[in-house]
Structures are given as C-alpha cells and as structure tokens.
Design a protein that fits this description.
The structure holds four protein chains of four kinds. In chain B, 19% of the residues lie in helices and 28% in strands. Chain B is of the alpha/beta class. A five-stranded mixed β-sheet of chain B has the order 1-2-5-4-3. Chain B has a two-stranded parallel sheet with strand order 6-7. The longest helix of chain B has 12 residues. The radius of gyration of chain B is 17 Å and the shape is elongated. The model of chain B has no long low-confidence stretch (mean pLDDT 87). By secondary structure, chain D is mainly α. In chain D, helix 11 runs antiparallel to helix 15. Classes of the chains: A alpha+beta, B alpha/beta, C alpha+beta, D mainly alpha.
C-alpha cells in the first residue's frame, strides 16, 4: 500500500471531537504525524482579563475537568504571590489534601480512559468506579462533583466537614485493596504488557528538550517533581518520595508511564494520611485579601499531567492585565511526531493515551 | 553552578541588564533583542537549562514584552542547601512596529508551539521558525486577539 | 511492588480472569454499584451547590450577587413588594420609602454554572443554594427564573451581621461633590448620611454656601458600589479599606466604631 | 425419530391435507389450459417433492433455533458483561412495567422478588431490533454501491448457512452430509470475501485497513485451525460429525468416563480454541473492528439493518464456532440420560460462549503484527505437533490393547 494520510479526529474515538491527529502511514506503519488543535479554544486568557481576580477561579476550574483543583490551586498560588498574601497553615494542609485527592481522581480518570484505547472496556469501568469514591470525597467540602471552586485566593472556601478524615481513611483503605486486586488484571496481564511494553519510547534527554514533564518525564527515570523541586504548600514538611520508573536504559515506554501513575496514586495516599496526622487547627482563609494588584508573578505547580505554570501581570486594577497559562500537554502533544514515528497504527491510541492528554487545558 | 555564580556570569554577558532574584530559585534579567540567540545558545549549552517552560507575550502598550521561562531540570544550576530547581526568567522588549525576534525552537523543541501560540494570539514574528502557523485559532483568522487594541464585540443576551 | 513479579503463561488468561470472575460473583449475589437514578438517589452533602433560592426577608437588594456572577446570569429585577413582605423584610424600615423600587435577583439557569459566588459574597446570607438539581427544561425560556420564583420563606431567620466580602468601600473625593445625596437614597444598607462638609462652594450668584457631603459608616458598608454607580459627579471611588480610619473624610462620618 | 423423518411426516401431512387440495382446486378452476398448479400437485405426491418440502421445514426449524440462540447469546453477553463490570445491564422487561404500574396505582407489590423495577431486560433486544430496522440506510456518495450492498449479504448468508450445517444431535440435524465439518469450514472461509468487499467498497481508509486486517487474520488462522482439526479427523477417520461424536464415546478412561478429544489432543484443543476465537473475531482478536483505532473498522460506513446484520452474523459465527468446538473436542451431544442430547449440546455450546464472553471482558486487544506472529510462529508448529501425536497414537493403538483405557499411562 502506498503512503497515505489518515485523519484521526476530530470525529474519532481516540480524539473524541477535541483535536485532530493527521497520521501518514505506510501500510500500518506510521511515517509522520501532524497534530492540530483549536477545537476547544475558549480564549480563557482573554476572558480572564475581563474578570476580577477572584472570579477567575471558575475559569481555571474549567481548564481541565479531570483535574480542576490543581489548576485553580496554581492560579491561586500565583495570584497570592502577586498580592503577597499569607495563607494560613490549616488552609495549606487542606489544600494539600484536596490536591492529592484530585491527583488520585485525575490519574484514575486517565487510567479509565486508557483502557478502552487498548480495547479493555472493563478496565475503564473499574477505574471510573473508583474515581466516584474520590469525587464523593471532593464533593463533601466543596459542594460540587466536578468543578469544585473550592480553593480560593487566600485559602480555601470552607473548613473540612465533620467526619471527613474517617470517611477518607475508609475510602483510601478500600482503594488500596482494589489497586492490589487490579494488578493481576492490568499490569501483570501478559496481553496488557504486550500492548504497552517497548511502545512509544523516548529518552530522558529527548523528553526534557521536547518539553515533556510530569509523570511522562518521570517514566524515563528522571527524578523531577515540582512538589519537591519548586516546593509549595506543605510538601516540604511531609515525608514522601518521587516515583520514577525506567523501562530500559534511560527511556520510557507506555508501560513505565502507566506504572509511574499507579505508583504515584499509592504515594498520594501516603501524603493524604500524613497530612491528616499533622493538620493543625486554625483559620482556613487569610484575614485580609487585596482586591487590586500591581506587578508580575508566576508560580509553577505539579499538575496531574506535568508542569503547570501561571504567569499573572497586574496593572493596579482589580482585573489581571495579562494572564498566561502554561499547560504541560501543549508541549507534549506538539512533540508527538517524535515518539509516534515507526510504530503501528494500532499503537497510536496506546501511545497517545499513555501520555494522558487533556485538551481542555491545552486549548485554553 | 551555584545560583549566585550563575547570576554573576549572566550579568557579564553582553546585552543582559537588571539581573535579579525573584525568589530564592528564580533569576530574572532583561535581554536586548539583538544577539539574543547567542545568549540562549549559551543558556542551553553552558548553563544547562534543558527545559523551556513557557514563552509569554505581553502587550505593554506601546511595546511588546516577551517573557521566557527556562528550567534547569538536571540541576546544573542549583541553590545551596535546597532541592529547588532553578528557573531563569528572561524579558525581551520589542517595538510595536517590528515585533520580530529570533526563534529558539531549534534549541528547545518545546518552544516550538509556544512561539506559534505567541504568533497566533499576539502577532510576534519568530525569525527562523520552521512552521510559523496559527495553532489555536483557525487559519485565516483576522487579527491577534490578545493585543490590547484588538476590537471585539461583547455579546450579552437580553433576558 | 506487586508488578515486579515474573510474568508467566498463567497471566495470559487465567490470572486476569480470576479478578473478573470474583467481581462477577460479587455483583451477581451482591448489589452492583449502579445507582438507579430516577428510582433511587444518592444524598447530596449539605454543602451541595444546586438551584439557588433567595430568602426575601433577608435580601436588601444590594446587587452584589449580580456583580460577582462571572457569567452575568444573575440580574436584579425591579419587584413590587406586598405590604406583608415589606413588613417582614429585615431592612424594611429603610426600604419603606422606596417600596416600589425594590430589586430582587432573577436567575437565568441557562447561563448559570453553579460556582456559588453569589452565595459566598451575599452580605446578609439571603442568597442560598439548595440541593435541588433537576433543572432541565425543554426550552431556553423555561430556564429563566423570575425574581418571585426564587423566593423562599424561613420560619426562623438567621440574623447575620452585615459583612463586607468585597473587601472594598467607597471613598469620597471632596472637591467635585455637589451634595446631591443620590448615594444616600440608593444605599441598600443605609450606611451613608449627609452632613455638613468641610468645604464651601461659590455659587453662580456669588453667594458661598456650605455643601453637604456623604459620610460613610464602614461597619455596615457592604461594598456593593451602588453609590459609585449612581454618583453624577464621579466623586466616589472604591478603595480597599479594612477599618474606619483609613481615608480622608470618612472617619468623622462613622457613627459606630468597628 | 430424527428431525428429518419428523419433517417428512409433517411434509406428508401438509401435502395431503393442505397443499395438494389447494393446488388441485386451482388447477380445476381453468381446466382448458395447462395449469402449473396441477403439475406442482403431481410433483408433491412424488418422493422428490416430499423430500424437498421436508427439507424446507427442517431448514426453517434450524434457522428458528439458531436465531433464538442468537438473541439469547447477545442478551447473555450483555448481562454477563454488566456483572463483570459491576453494573446491572439491561433491565427493562414486561415485569418492570407491571411493577411500575402497581406502584403508580398504589398497590402492594405482588411480585416476590421486587427490586426497583429490575427485570431481566428482555425488551432491550426488541428495542435494538426496532432501532436498527427503522434507521436510515446510508450509502456513502463515493462508495461502490453494488459491492457495498453485496458485502453484508455475503457475510450474513454465509453465516446463516452455517446454522443448518451442524447437528444438534444425531437425530436432530437439518442436513447430514458425510463431509459435514469440511462444509462448515468452507462456509466459515467465505466470510473474508464479504469483509474485504465491504471494506473496499466503503471507500474509507479505516474500512480499508480494517478489511485488509480481517482478510490477513482470517486467512492466516485458517491453516492452524484446519491442522488442529485434522487430528480429530484422523482419530475418527471421518468428516461426519455423528461419527466423530460416536468415536469420542467409544474410548473411555478413568472410572469409565468417556475420553473426549480434548484430553488426548490437549494441544490441538488449545490451538483450535485460539484459532476459532480469531476466526469469529472476538476479543482479543477483534482488531479488524478495533473501535479505538479504526472506528469499528470495515463496518464504519454501514448503518441501520446492514450494521445489525454484521453484528448478528458475528454472533452466529461465534455460536457456530462454539458448536464446532463442542462436536470436535467436547463429545458433542453426549451426556447422562435424563437430559436430552440436544440440551446437552446447547449446554456445552453455551459454556464455551460464556467462557469467550469472560475472555472478551478480561483482556485487552492485541496488535496486528502480534496476532500474525502468534498465528504463524506459535500456533502452526503446535498444530503440527498435535498431528504427530495423533499419528503416533493411531499407529501404536493396535499393538497396545483393544481399548484406549491404557492411553493415559502411555503419555
């Protein structure tokens, strides 16, 4: 068969209406790829310039529906840096708990979305069933299941409800059991390994230059996690490890990226438990929060998908003058011709699924 | 290289002004538009900033400002007694009439789409970019919407 | 780590099938996770953000809810209050003089995203969010809820203190003030009074006359910026003020100390 | 009484009391002219006419049984998949309506196991059928219209043909060809033509790749499939299903249990199971219609009843594959007395189908190159080894004993 371009998306089960991947194939082998974005562009940055600082947390919630708290937190952190607001200690602990719960939910969402890409519908339902547990947890203090609007500039919206710790502990225990149970169904399954091992490889040096961060970079064995390397909230006071995994000599494949995320979920459970143990009493909101700000500030946080960075410029009014969002997936998708070349058509969902694409944050 | 030594070395480079610390691990400096590429080559090869985090374009009215964020992932530049990864924040100011700057996407591939986005939304032209097309907006879109002088209609539904 | 064991021939079908078989028996003889929605419902937590409801007895018509709404889905609509409603209203004494001009929020749920800002920033706690979430309708017009349909009545009203969640209060620029007292008429909390100002103005006729200036009680100011909007001379602006003694003119006007 | 003699009796009765009088009456209406109705009436009195009529009855019965099985298999798949996935599956049945009506009327529940209007969901099948039939049949503008319509016809007709070919028992068979299993395999291998035709005629790149994949897969798995069947044929010395099942009954092992073919030919059984899974395109070998990468492959452009025919044909092929497996390796319709042999046969078939359903919802899909590698490098040598074992067995058999009782000790 001669070389031909196949347009995967926007109406394709892998891209489900959000983006297009044009693939040049020779028979079943990929020769070239060209990703296209813009189907979900909402001009969030421009909209943010018209809204007051505190209103923008609703926009950041909607950057990624799978991981909305981490994005709102990144925004709140940068605006607090800009306004020089001191967040109370208890609010920082609550934020950390919410971030890790959100990371668990986000990774579960990813794992559930990854399984149908490999042709494993049951996996999707198993992981999404567990995600519901964490959505229930996130719903209890914030009052919403998907778009929480819980982390605000200067703290969190309200204190944790009564019995939240016991409820969390119960769910974490259940989830740990299930994670062990799933090992036989997924990572120890021979066919799952046949599909994911030695597929979608890139080395650590390549990944850094391509702008790939987060679990995808840690899948190459690079110990880089912004919770540790640009620490925020109370991650420096808590004992936890960066989860890395290496498939071969310095490269990552789909399986190592899968395993990094599974290990990270276990690590998140550890962090949440320790946070509950150390949590002090006190207020959950800073006493005085300015409305207007001047200057520029940025903070970067470890989003569920990689490095999230928000750069906020204020001109003295109550609205941001310029607000820039760095999405980790934006660069990772742009690099996809590099790690798709040479694999089969059947590998495209396996590879693109394994890097955990979220188009909401990418298209902004 | 310790961050203080890094700051000293950076300030000795031609075209770099106002070197300062934003936080304990973030170095900020201004850079002249001419010869910026030489500095970026030095930043990548000599100082080991492997990762281009972000390129932001700001419309400061009248001039444009480009803000580059680079990150040293492998710890070639470090802060003493801290695990913090060092970032470099570099500001380049451009005239409104000639919003052009040399592309760095051949040094960092990760900068490729950031430059495309800056071109798309702010109208900055990157010389030497391999594929300077719009990335978020459709082809044939008129204007660059993040510029402050971009005229747009606010549609508010009456009810 | 459990995944580091050797993968053998049993891991092709047999071991994975153990997991699914176990689940099969569990959900056949137990209860599946599915919530059969219209027949059985899960209880939303008390914090749940559902459809809005306005406690009219507490509402003072300040319009902050419309101001903080990111989607502008909430508008203040002029509403005529009945005598009974007028009597029950918390700030009824003040509103009595503008009974026919009272404003109450109406919501277009087609635009609402249930962020909860209106509830959080309401200075009297009149705006609440219920746990009712079945708002679907067959047409767009059905999603527009007029002001009266948002009304709820409570048996015992929570008498909350007025709180300035906006973190800002109006400050007077004395020179352009013409003493029209429009701000006083429109202030929803009655926190402004007109009093003798520090400044005399020369009229066209040559006479000098003392101009009355507004004085603000920042302890009950809610930062709604209604006065700024109605001011014909642009002499008011909002400033972040945390206590009563932070701006030029206002400290004398404060009737009670914070 | 066998199915055919039953049908023959039915045909005689119908001919005598319904058809011949009617045709004769018609012929009597216009006596001056030569009327075909009279000829038909004459023909129905001959042996050939009666046999034809009986055969028509038999085929219809087999078809009805096959289609009923199809609905049951689809429903079974849904319910089992739902249980595996911690769901409830389709639930709307007449019982739910009755419960709902009772609740609305305020009566106390009359049903013993009342659980939230949850029936077994048999109405879902009707809903699916009605939906598929009432949907628009879309033919893409640039498709080859003739081949596009021919594709489903080839696929479904070759699949339905399978239904009449295998017997449910030695007495319940629509056709009894001596080369029965060979005909079944021949019917099985017509399907790639339909798949390739519809994949090509859709004028869609995904369909094209799906069709090519399907053709490559089906053709490469035909060889190990037939080779693994060859062992059974050698042992039985016949292609006839009845003979094969009887042969499996003759040999016994411990406790006098019949030694069905899957014990001596375990390798062949495994190879056959994998190959027939690939042949009927079920997970993990369903890559021609992998929805994540190829958007349902060669069925992308089909809609309405055509798409449903594809789906139905796949389930019929699955049912037929399980039936062949039962005949060859699991002793066919043999079983203890009180249960009739037809029920035994169906029970075994459903056991295999449930096993396949479990596989489908347990493992991911494998890749094209991996499936071909598995077929050519692993299954082909294994099936050859199986044939060698069987030849060894058949050759040394006369020297050992009159029965096969000693065989387990030999191996």
């Amino acid at each position: 068969m001669a070389e031909m371009w196949i347009s995967m998306g926007p109406q394709h089960p892998m891209t489900h209406g959000l983006w297009t991947l044009k693939v040049k194939v020779d028979g079943e082998t990929i020769v070239d790829a060209d990703p296209e974005l813009g189907y979900l562009h909402r001009s969030v940055e421009k909209m943010g310039e018209r809204r007051k600082y505190f209103m923008n947390t609703t926009l950041t919630d909607r950057l990624c529906y799978a991981s909305s708290t981490t994005w709102t937190h990144c925004y709140a952190l940068s605006v607090e840096e800009l306004m020089e607001v001191e967040v109370p200690q208890r609010a920082q602990y609550i934020r950390t708990i919410m971030l890790e719960l959100q990371r668990l939910a986000s990774h579960l969402m990813w794992a559930g979305a990854y399984m149908p890409d490999l042709g494993h519908i049951t996996g999707a339902l198993y992981f999404w069933r567990d995600r519901e547990l964490f959505l229930n947890l996130l719903e209890a203090p914030s009052g919403s299941r998907l778009l929480y609007n819980y982390i605000r500039i200067g703290g969190v919206k309200r204190d944790l409800p009564d019995g939240f710790e016991q409820k969390t502990e119960r769910i974490l225990k259940l989830f740990e059991q299930r994670l062990d149970e799933y090992a036989d169904l997924f990572e120890n399954s021979k066919i799952f390994r046949m599909r994911t091992e030695d597929v979608g490889k890139f080395t650590a040096a390549q990944a850094q230059n391509l702008g790939i961060t987060g679990p995808n970079l840690r899948g190459c064995g690079t110990k880089f996690d912004l919770r540790e390397h640009d620490t925020y909230e109370i991650y420096d006071e808590i004992d936890w490890d960066i989860q890395t995994r290496e498939a071969g000599p310095g490269y990552s494949d789909c399986f190592s990226r899968y395993m990094v995320r599974i290990d990270e979920m276990r690590e998140s459970i550890k962090i949440i438990r320790e946070c509950f143990k150390k949590m002090p009493a006190g207020p959950t909101m800073a006493s005085k929060i300015p409305v207007r700000a001047t200057g520029e500030a940025f903070r970067r946080t470890e989003d569920s998908r990689g490095e999230a960075l928000m750069y906020v410029v204020g001109d003295g009014s109550d609205r941001p003058y310029r607000w820039k969002i760095k999405s980790p997936m934006f660069t990772t998708i742009s690099a996809c011709p590099h790690y798709l070349k040479g694999y089969k058509v059947a590998d495209i969902p396996a590879i693109m699924g394994s890097i955990d694409i979220c188009i909401g944050e990418t298209d902004k | 290289m310790e961050i203080k030594a890094f700051m000293k070395e950076v300030s000795s480079v031609k075209g770099v002004t106002k070197v300062g610390l934003v936080r304990n691990n973030v170095v900020k400096c201004n850079l002249d538009k001419e010869g910026s590429k030489d500095f970026f080559v030095k930043l990548k090869d000599d100082f080991g900033f492997e990762h281009c985090s972000l390129i932001t374009a700001i419309d400061n009215q009248p001039q444009f400002e480009l803000v580059y964020h680079f990150s040293a992932i492998n710890g070639s530049v470090f802060v003493k007694d801290s695990s913090a990864a060092v970032m470099a924040e570099i500001h380049i100011f451009l005239d409104r009439d000639t919003p052009t700057v040399e592309s760095i996407s051949d040094l960092w591939f990760g900068a490729n789409w950031h430059e495309r986005e800056a071109f798309d939304l702010m109208g900055i032209y990157f010389i030497g970019h391999p594929d300077l097309r719009r990335v978020l907006l459709p082809e044939g879109f008129a204007g660059h919407p993040l510029r402050k002088d971009y005229v747009y209609e606010i549609h508010e539904e009456e009810w | 780590m459990s995944s580091d064991r050797e993968i053998g021939i049993m891991d092709i079908i047999v071991n994975p099938m153990k997991v699914t078989l176990k689940q099969f028996f569990k959900s056949t003889f137990g209860k599946p996770t599915t919530v059969m929605y219209p027949l059985e419902r899960r209880d939303p937590p008390p914090t749940y953000r559902g459809m809005n409801a306005v406690i009219w007895d507490l509402c003072i018509g300040c319009g902050i809810c419309g101001e903080v709404c990111p989607n502008k889905c909430l508008k203040m609509k002029p509403t005529e209050l009945s005598d009974e409603e007028q009597d029950r209203a918390w700030y009824g004494s003040h509103l009595a003089k503008r009974k026919n001009k009272a404003e109450r929020p109406a919501i277009n749920f087609g635009h609402c995203m249930f962020c909860g800002f209106c509830e959080d920033y309401c200075p009297t706690g009149a705006m609440t969010m219920t746990d009712f979430y079945e708002l679907a309708d067959t047409n767009r017009e059905g999603l527009i809820y007029p002001a009266r349909s948002m009304k709820v009545e409570l048996e015992d009203l929570p008498q909350l203190p007025l709180t300035n969640y906006m973190m800002e209060s109006p400050v007077l620029d004395v020179d352009p003030c013409i003493g029209c007292s429009k701000c006083v008429d429109n202030c929803p909390t009655n926190c402004i009074i007109m009093d003798e100002g520090p400044q005399n103005k020369t009229l066209k006729s040559g006479k000098t006359r003392n101009v009355e200036n507004p004085y603000f009680d920042y302890t009950i100011c809610i930062g709604c910026s209604t006065c700024v909007k109605v001011c014909p001379a642009d002499c008011l602006h909002m400033e972040p003020i945390s206590n009563s003694s932070s701006s030029g003119l206002s400290e004398e006007g404060a009737t009670t100390e914070a | 009484m066998s199915l055919f003699s039953f049908c023959k009796a039915m045909a005689e009765w119908t001919a005598d009391y319904m058809l011949i009088p009617v045709f004769n009456f018609q012929a009597g209406l216009f006596p001056p002219f030569s009327n075909p109705a009279g000829d038909i009436a004459d023909w129905l009195e001959t042996d050939g006419g009666l046999n034809t009529l009986a055969w028509l009855f038999a085929v219809n019965i087999a078809f009805a049984i096959g289609m009923t099985n199809l609905i049951i298999v689809i429903h079974l798949e849904r319910k089992i998949a739902a249980r595996i996935q911690d769901r409830r599956g389709p639930m709307l049945s007449l019982r739910s309506f009755r419960e709902l009506g009772e609740d609305l009327a305020g009566n106390s529940p009359s049903w013993r196991f009342k659980q939230n209007y949850a029936g077994i969901g048999i109405l879902q099948n009707m809903a699916d059928g009605i939906k598929a039939i009432t949907k628009e049949l879309i033919i893409p503008a640039k498709a080859d219209k003739f081949l596009f319509t021919m594709g489903p016809i080839i696929f479904i007709s070759s699949s339905v043909f399978l239904l009449v070919l295998f017997p449910l028992s030695d007495r319940f068979a629509a056709s009894s060809a001596p080369a029965g299993l060979m005909v079944i395999m021949a019917a099985f291998s017509i399907a790639p033509i339909g798949v390739l035709t519809s994949g090509w005629a859709s004028n869609n790149k995904y369909s094209m790749i799906g069709g090519m994949r399907s053709a490559a897969q089906l053709m490469s798995y035909e060889i190990p499939l037939l080779l693994s069947m060859a062992g059974v044929f050698l042992l039985a010395g016949s292609f006839d299903p009845v003979t094969i099942v009887e042969q499996q009954q003759q040999s016994t092992w411990f406790f006098g249990l019949p030694m069905w073919n899957f014990i001596p030919q375990f390798i062949g059984f495994i190879v056959f199971m994998i190959c027939i899974l690939a042949e009927v395109e079920r997970v993990p070998f369903d890559l021609p219609e992998a929805e994540a990468e190829l958007v349902e492959g060669w069925t992308t452009e089909y809609s309405g009843i055509r798409y449903m025919l594809f789906l139905a044909a796949e389930y019929i092929r699955g049912f037929a594959g399980a039936a062949v497996c039962t005949i060859l390796f699991l002793g066919g319709w043999a079983g203890p007395w009180p249960v009739p042999p037809e029920v035994w046969f169906l029970l075994k078939v459903y056991l295999i189908l449930i096993f396949w359903i479990f596989i489908r919802w347990t493992v991911p899909r494998i890749r094209t190159d991996q499936i071909l590698e598995l077929g050519w490098k692993k299954l082909l040598p294994l099936s050859l080894i199986n044939i060698l074992i069987v030849i060894f067995m058949v050759e040394i058999y006369p020297y050992l004993s009159d029965t096969l009782t000693l065989l387990p000790e030999v191996f």
